[in-house]
Amino acid sequence: MVAVLNKKGFKLPRVEKEKFISLMHLGLDYNREQGLFSVKSCNNIEKLMDTIGSILNAEVVFLQTCTRCGKDFPCSNCKYNELCTSKDLPFSCVCPQCLQDRKQYEEYLMKF
Amino acid sequence: MKNDLLWVEKYRPKKIEDIVGNEEAKALFVEWLRSKRRSKKAVLLYGPPGVGKTALINAASKEFGFIVIEMNASDTRSEKAINKVAAPATSYVALDNFSTRSNGNVLFLDEVDGIAGNEDRGGVGAIIKIVEDSLVPVIMAANDPDIDKLRPLKKVCLLVRFQHVRIPLIIALLQKICLLEHIKAEFEALERIAQNSRGDVRSAINDLQSLSEENHVLTLQDTMGLSSRNKDISMDETLRGFFSVKSMADAQKLLSYSSVDYDDFLLSVSDNLPKRFTNPGELAAAYDYVSRADMYRGRIGTENWHLLKYFFNEMAQAAAVAPQSYKPFELISPPIRIITLFWTKGKRSMLDGICGKIGAQCHVSHAIAKQDFVPFIKEMLQKKNAAARIAEWFNFTSEEIDFLVKMNKY
Fold first, then answer.
1. Which of residues 65-104 of A touch B (CB under 8 A)?
2. CA angle B354, B356, B359 (to 5 degrees)
3. Fold of the B235-334 domain
4. Nearest to B161 among A43, A84, A102 (CB)
5. What is this structure's pTM?
6. Which residues of B touch A93 (CB under 8 A)?
7. Pairing state of beta strands A72-73 and A64-66?
8. Is the dihedral of CA B354, B357, B361, B366 positive or negative?
């Protein structure tokens, strides 16, 4: 089973105190009001994903944020998936649609 | 080159938002730099080369009005040297701090993972002391933070990890450069350059420039030569090509496509020049160019790669001193100096062991033991009545005694 998460906010089942502390140490942040976890630091991202995976009992993949259109999209849509060294990690990227669309790109450049 | 300015320099990010990729790392670093009350006084940016660590530091410092005081790998970073440069820079809050334009100094130590060896002795300890006492932010960058030497340093730093820049982001950057340089590039060509760069933005821009500045059209076909850059062209192949070139342009092209280690290449060229140029006048001219290339190599160090074109230029001139006089010859490779070091490794470690024993007994350093004690001990060991007592006192093994007695040079 694959769990697709959004780094800006996702829910996890209730975990023990030690596990919660370990998640915080690994780079997660917790918003008490909304009850959502978010990724604060990516220094230990691989280990963090393993830990979340063990809590959810599923393979964890994160959505990517497109730097041009701002939409979130999964790595599975990307044709460079196999070559990417940071596949499924919660980083910014350019979505396949924006990458191919030259007109949209020129409009994007005009913003600067 | 048609345009003297390298594109990596021309398009060096001036603002934080110009840096492609690693958004999360950028945000973390910027938050730390802007903060008035930093939880850690130092930050260590780490990750592979060409992903924007140094560019981010320079762009962010400029944007937030910091003056960067930099010590990089080409400087000696011993305890003494660090204290000389970094201590004054970090122990006072500059008067600039009170002006509206400047926020004061930041100390930037680039390639801290390169602090090693005797030259940089005490360097890491000195940096930790500086970080603890510093009144200004201390920023460090490294490619490999996992080396043992940096472990104590990591404890006092906020760690910010950089990843390889993703292919779509590199393609987007190349598209931008093509637009600004009026280059009509096929998408597949940019795709190929980005894939070949393996996440290194600097090498992708260099590839784009080398492939497209001749004519302003870039096709997938043009990028086919790129495979040879990543393919290992052996030292032998490069040397053979180098000595048989017909012109400077050929030599420059060969050097830009080869991925040999430049230091080994310089030594090999130097070894082979007398075989290539039999005429003394030609040989002297070639050595003159090679010596200048060596000077540029020294200035390049590990980060001033914008000087590489001057290195290539001098080497190409050396190769093209007399193209008409070329006759095939048997190459000396690898360099004699490296072969010598390889063959003498056993002997050197034996001598090191002996010097260690002398040092321990006589309370002197290895260097003093080697220079002042070994010649006399060698003489004494040749006298039969004293040899046994001396060997016993120093606890020399029979192999060590044999080595000392037979050695000619130390």
1. 65, 67-68, 78, 80, 83-86, 89-96, 99-100, 102
2. 110
3. Zinc Finger, Delta Prime; domain 3 (1.20.272)
4. A43
5. 0.61
6. 166, 168-169
7. antiparallel
8. positive
User: What is the residue extent of each domain of chain B?
Assistant: 22-161, 167-230, 235-334, 344-406
The model's pLDDT over A65-100, given as tens digits with 9 standing for 90+, comes to: 888 888 889 988 888 887 787 888 888 898 888 888
The 8 Å CB, 24+ separation contacts for A103-111 are A104/A68, A104/A69, A105/A68, A105/B172, A105/B175, A106/B179, A108/A68, A109/B176, A109/B179
What are the tokens at B184?
């009509």
**Tokens of residue A68, six digits:** 């041009």
Domain ranges of chain A: 1-61, 63-112
- Cα angle for residues B76, B155, B110 (degrees, 5° grid): 30
Give the tokens for residue A109. Answer: 């450049």
Chain A hits for B169, Cβ within 8 Å? 67, 92-94
B22-161: CATH number: 3.40.50.300
Element (H, E) at B147: none
Alpha-carbon gap, residue B29 to B161, rounded angstroms: 10
Structure tokens at B242: 């180098």
Place of tokens 């140490």: A25
Q: Name every residue whose Cβ is closer than 8 Å to that of residue B248 and which is 6 or more positions away in sequence.
A: B313, B316, B317, B319, B320
pLDDT tens per residue, range B158-208: 999 998 899 999 998 998 898 888 888 888 889 889 988 888 888 899 888
Report ipTM (2 d.p.): 0.85
Give dist(CA B27, CA A38) in Å, integer.
15
Q: Which of A39, A84, A89 sits opposite B167 (nearest CB)?
A: A84
Nearest residue of chain A to residue B200 (CA atoms): A85
Q: Which residues pair with A93 in a beta bridge?
A: A66
B347 touches chain A (CB under 8 A): no
Q: Are strands B104-109 and B138-142 parallel, antiparallel or unpaired?
A: parallel
Axis crossing angle, helix B374-381 with helix B398-406, rounded to the nearest 10: 100
DSSP-derived 3-state class of residue B140: strand
Q: What stretches of B96-166 show up as alpha helix (H) in DSSP? A: 123-133, 151-155
User: Nearest CA to CA, how far is B57 from chain A (Å)?
Assistant: 18
Asked if residue B369 lies in contact with residue B358, where contact means CB atoms within 8 angstroms, the answer is: yes
What the block records as the tokens of A25 is: 């140490």
Helix (H, G, I), strand (E, B) or coil at B227: helix
CATH of domain B167-230: 1.10.8.60
Q: Which residues of B touch A41 (CB under 8 A)?
A: 24, 28
